[in-house]
Task: structure prediction
Amino acid sequence: KNQVEQSPQSLIILEGKNCTLQCNYTVSPFSNLRWYKQDTGRGPVSLTIMTFSENTKSNGRYTATLDADTKQSSLHITASQLSDSASYICVVSPSGGSYIPTFGRGTSLIVHP
Amino acid sequence: NAGVMQNPRHLVRRRGQEARLRCSPMKGHSHVYWYRQLPEEGLKFMVYLQKENIIDESGMPKERFSAEFPKEGPSILRIQQVVRGDSAAYFCASSSDYEQYFGPGTRLTVT
Result:
């Protein structure tokens, strides 16, 4: 069964600090992995997308890494801002004809001033 | 280029009524996905449609739920005879390739 596990479930940090969110998956065969940011009451917004051959992708202060061998990904947020408070969702899509992605439950990040 | 539009944003229905949720994909996108998000849960796939075709509805409950994406107009997710357990946020996403763009969601509350 395809699964995506994220940790921690929630995280509280001070403004300006860095943090790293984790994602482990069992989806196979693998096509791509995406990180989304979901603000409260809004739809998810894509931050990064990585395919099998990519092991790092940056989008401003967000840097995602991917280890396809260990089936792990991380999202690193640098110099956090109050607006980073949101849920961060890891989504893994299979290849080989199936297009149905598997979503993690998300990590809830709260950035305090 | 407007993003994915969903309406209504909030919908309140009494048990037994019908709920109709609408999704207008981004211009040029012919693929629509519907997802449901329960409180404290991840998004769960419901159905994947292309114009006038249901490609995969493996995530849809067998009864009361249906979806369509007509040649003209928005995609519709229809829930008949709603029950309290249907209360959730329903998101649609559209794509032209493997990148999906999400709408703001419709929050359904069944009283």
